[in-house]
Amino acid sequence: MLRFFGLAALLVASVGCAGDGHFTILGYSTKPNYDTRFRTVSVPMVKNRSSYIVTPVVGLEQDLHRALIDQIQLVTPYRVTQNDPDTQLNVTIRNVSKNLLNYTPFNTIREAEVIVTVDLIWRDLRTGEVLSRPSRRPGQPIDSETPQPLLLNGNLPRNIPRIGDVPDRPEAAAQAVIAADEEQFVDPRTRRTVTPITLRISANYREELGESTTAALQAAIKKIARQITAAMEPGW
Question: Tens digit of pLDDT for each residue in 156-179?
Answer without folding.
Answer: 555 555 555 445 544 444 444 555
